[in-house]
Amino acid sequence: MKLSLGPILYLWPRQQIYDFYDSILSSPVDIIYLGETVCSKRRSLKTDEWIELARQLSKSGKEVVLSSLTLIEAESELKTLRRICNQSDFLVEANDMSAVQLLSEQGLPFISGPFINIYNARTLAFMGKQGLKRWVMPVELSAEALSAIVKGYTSMSLNSIETEVYSFGRLPLAYSARCFTARAHNLQKDDCALICGEYPDGLQLNSQEQQELFTINGIQTMSGDIYNLLGEVATMKEMGVDILRISPQYRHMNDIIHCFDEARQGNSKYLLPKENYCNGYWYKKEGLEMVT
Hints:
The protein is α/β, with parallel strands linked by helices. It has one domain: TIM Barrel. It has nine helices and twelve strands. Helix 5 packs across helix 6.
């Protein structure tokens, strides 16, 4: 079972991004996903700089994947997408069906991100015919649904496809053409001043009862609590999950990675930093629940 580090979902300063990945080189993470997946206005690194960073990180022996934007709205974004899909040095994580089309037309293998709606074995088989090498389970699916999909696909005796599960981090729930962080500051989306950069782990949105219900991250709505499947690592291993994905957080990343590394080796004595956690979707319950 491998560990992956998903793309950074927040707007971090340029140097902090470089420093972050420098610190990851000595970690037990096996796979690193790079690129902007949320908002094309975030340009801490340009596309060519992401690709160059991928080249540098790949020298460490880790697998590096380029991730595409999730919501394509403009020709300029399509141009960037084509640039990513037309390179052949690195696998691409397709987070939009336009990326799937561009990659499949070239006969290139690809990975489907958690925003591609694969909800049954037949869809997984169809995507496999398009060149799918690995799929990341949509975050709202349960362990029961995952088991049914994997078993159904296996029964078809088709080419093997790796399964990756989003196992730690705030859940990316929805995307919108409207920027919620800008709206919270009475700013227009076209004149947002990149205000989301002031919230390196997102802007907390509370209910009237002061429950941390959601996290606002630009055009992305995320869970208020952190999704945590550390306690399910042994179960996922039995189910045949190949990769555990950890989503980058602003704090405690080395501790988080260390805990999951120990868990995949069967050692469960390490505790995660104290935070508000949830895992309801895994158990077919409300997403904000934490089942112990």
